[in-house]
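Quick check before the chapter quiz. The format below is the same one you will see on the exam, so make sure you can read both the input and the output lines.
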Amino acid sequence: MLSQRENELLKQFQNLPREFVANGAHHAYREFRDSLLAELAPSGILETLLADEIVSASWRLRRCSENEADLAFTVTEKSEFDNPSMGRISRARAAAAKLLFQAINELRRLQTERQLRAQTEPKQEKPGLARLHCAPKPPRLKTNPIGKIPPAPAKSRHSAARHGP
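Here is the expected output.
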């Protein structure tokens, strides 16, 4: 769970323009972002920042595909490889794919560590009235706690010989 200050920082960060969204695509971007964040289920600031990087890289890959499709209609097959726009799109695609896979791997690592910590750390209960009333009572003893007086140690033959009968 995020503290109030962490929530404020995230809201400020999320309100910054981080990704180019064409006019008319804001609703699609918001829907895409919300569904991807729900699926990634980040917890804490660092996981949320990584999830935002995943959203951003995924959106860039989507835009690269759209730009390639638009460019394919305007160029012929022969000039497709000579077109500098295709080179820029390819580099942008490679950079976005690299960023996407790095962020996914790092987010996975953090979430796995968090889950392992939650499983291995003992749950710390806060003392309260409910815990005090539920504390188990000590078992009742059936015998005298002191028990029987142990018998005196037997004298050995050597000690009897020295001290006499």
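If your answer matched, good. The two ends are 82 Å apart (CA to CA).
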